[in-house]
Automatic annotation (TrEMBL):
It holds the Pfam family OEP. It comes from Methylococcus capsulatus. This is Outer membrane protein, heavy metal efflux system. Belongs to the outer membrane factor (OMF) (TC 1.B.17) family. Signal peptide: none annotated.
Amino acid sequence: MEISLHRLVNTSWPHEGGIPFHRILALLGFLAGLGLWLAPSWAGVEPLTESQVIGLFYARNLSILSAELGLETAQAQKVIAAAIPNPELSIYQQEWAPNYPVWQNGPATYVAVSQLIETAGKRRLRMENSLLGEQAVESELRDVIRTLTQALRRAYYGLLLAQETMDAALEQSRHVQRLVEVQQKRFEVGDISERDLTRIKIEALKAQSDIDKIAAQLVAARSQLAVFLAWPDDAGNLSVKDQWPDGKSFEDLKDEMAAVNAALERRPDLLAAKTRYAQAKQGIDLAKAQRIPDIKVTAGFAHDLGNYIQNGATLGLSIPLPLFYRQEGEIAQAGIRANDNELRVRQTEVAVRSEVNTAFAAWISANTVVKRFETEIMQKAKHIRDSAEIAYTNGSTDIIDLIQAQRDYRNTIMDYYQAQANRAYAYADLKMAIGAE
């Protein structure tokens, strides 16, 4: 697998609300596997669904892989924090001399083992601090996934808009071309003037120009989505399924306050900020614990033939005396870091509320516009176009009204698909704002 998300599945994240972190990573691993399975033959077979594109994205995106390395670093830091100091073995001799009063005498030999004993729960505090650090990195990884997925969705909907616009332009061109053929026959029998026929032909040429313009937009949209997928082979044939988001996942959000409350529970960036604050506060306790000196205990064996007791045990105790410095600087720095992280929590909460309010209002507005198009505008625009064609055929209106009706219908179709895209963009933005998985 190109990204080793499967190694993260056993990690748990006890956050308030939302989906447990190990379930999220398991889902990402499944989507990554799905992306790898699709990668060799995804292009040119069937249009990709949104979930398939996300699977390819998780399998191939380098930014997610980079963020995962940060989590592995935090996990390594946990191992470092839990480490117990190694004992120290020392062997030394003393009383070396060229001659000894008694020839059997020689230098004294000492063998000792020293062990540093950490006091004041320093090791426990380090382990707790590193665990909080790992949890913060987990939330930061989830936040990277959140923001990148939102950008991916917008690129996906951008390509879908280009495809829908192209289909509408082709259909409009075919419709105008059929109208040209009908009016050509009427011209041949003298029912309309050459000027009217020429105007309709010009309208057909404009419809073809729209196709050429949209074709360039389609290429640009494919390229934008291909960038997120690390530019896979045959990216020029990339297409997505004709399926706009319906917003059913927002049915439980009755108002802005419900959306804000959901975001305050789910947003990984806010969870990360709170965890960093807890880690910084715990760092104060760790800094204060450093004021209490550690103890080094030494035990050993002495062999001294020149001594009255030739073989004996040794025992020593070493304790630093904190007379001149008691970690005042480190404690002050830890307090400053805690205050800074508390400020970041407040700033993040304000940003979350602002983003959710903006995204929720945009979603309500965009959703209302699409529903108005579907229930009222589209039917009326088609009726006006068809009525103008019938009226012109019967001679009850002129060519200007017919051409204007064609243009109005074409513009309405384009506005409708743009409204669909705007709603999809608002959908992606709101999902990101509330931290929905």
